[in-house]
């Protein structure tokens, strides 16, 4: 098989595969039940559903931070626990180290990976430039706004050039304008870097704006209620939010969420 044929076969194969995944933290307390999905390379999947339905748990399973009670997951062709280096994780809290300036915060995973100082500084600076913070390299987290901290957190998650980016409600604590502009920025980064993403959100608008597909989960136990394709063309920009199709998707997802008892 030639290089192109191999790549085409790779592209068709799911990058993340979930088969009959269930999770219970205590016997009889099923949090997630029988979740199956295939995520091809390039997918940007939003997880949405009522509070406590298991969205973060599903993300942690994909990251290999916890193991399923039943079923199996395959990430990048292997077990999630073996996918270290292929994955970047962004949490709701930016989790920056207060005693390091933002260049060193972004360079931290590279330091842990053993990259020499010059290389990790160069990469950290390139990442910070990509998120529009090259003017702030020497600043400390306490000197940054919430939106800037989240930009640093995203730059840090992407510094190791992961194939997959997992985001657990990263913009939930931000005001709407900052959130909208970070959403646009995130899509721009995705265009540039081509990672596959899975993110948790409570915002229907954010899910529709970002995602290529939305998984609506029901609660107690968490099950897939709907998997909806969002066929809005990328790149999506601020103009997308005034598009009639975008608004039709907002209505569809809101209805789906209401039918499972989500009040977000
Ligand atoms: N480590 C754990 N041990 C025991 N129970 C847990 C653990 N982690 C999560 N749970 C329980 O699993 C359920 C799902 O939690 P999870 O955080 O995945 O939900 P979520 O959909 O992300 O919620 P939210 O939207 O409120 O953030 C909750 O009832 C939670 O209490």
UniProtKB/TrEMBL annotation:
Question: Belongs to which family?
Answer: Belongs to the ABC transporter superfamily.
PANTHER family (alphabetical): ALIPHATIC SULFONATES IMPORT ATP-BINDING PROTEIN SSUB, TAURINE IMPORT ATP-BINDING PROTEIN-RELATED
State a single Gene Ontology molecular function.
ATP hydrolysis activity
User: What range(s) does the ABC transporter domain occupy?
Assistant: 16-244
| Superkingdom field | Bacteria
Q: Per UniProt, which keywords does this protein have?
A: ATP-binding, Nucleotide-binding, Transport
Q: Indicate what this protein is called per its UniProt record.
A: ABC transporter ATP-binding protein
């Amino acid at each position: 098989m030639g290089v192109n044929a191999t790549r085409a076969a790779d592209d068709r194969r799911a990058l993340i595969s979930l088969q009959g995944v269930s999770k219970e933290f205590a016997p009889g307390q099923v949090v997630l039940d029988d979740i199956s999905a295939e995520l091809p390379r390039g997918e940007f999947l939003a997880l949405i559903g009522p509070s406590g339905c298991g969205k973060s748990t599903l993300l942690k399973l994909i990251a290999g931070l916890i193991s399923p009670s039943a079923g199996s997951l395959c990430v990048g062709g292997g077990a999630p626990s073996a996918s270290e280096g292929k994955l970047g994780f962004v949490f709701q809290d930016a989790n920056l180290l207060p005693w390091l300036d933002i260049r060193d915060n972004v360079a931290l995973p590279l330091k842990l990976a053993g990259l020499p100082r010059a290389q990790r500084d160069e990469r950290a600076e390139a990442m910070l430039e990509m998120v529009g913070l090259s003017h702030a390299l020497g600043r400390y987290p306490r000197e940054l706004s919430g939106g800037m901290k989240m930009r640093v957190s995203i730059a840090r998650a992407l510094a190791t050039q992961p194939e997959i980016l997992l985001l657990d409600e990263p913009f939930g604590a931000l005001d709407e304008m900052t959130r909208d502009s970070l959403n646009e920025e995130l899509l721009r980064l995705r265009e540039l870097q081509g990672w596959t993403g899975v993110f948790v959100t409570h915002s229907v608008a954010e899910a529709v704006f970002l995602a290529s597909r939305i998984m609506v989960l029901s609660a107690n136990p968490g099950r897939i209620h709907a998997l909806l394709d969002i066929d809005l063309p990328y790149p999506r920009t601020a103009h997308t939010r005034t598009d009639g199709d975008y608004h039709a998707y907002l209505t569809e997802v809101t209805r789906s969420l209401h039918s499972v008892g989500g009040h977000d």
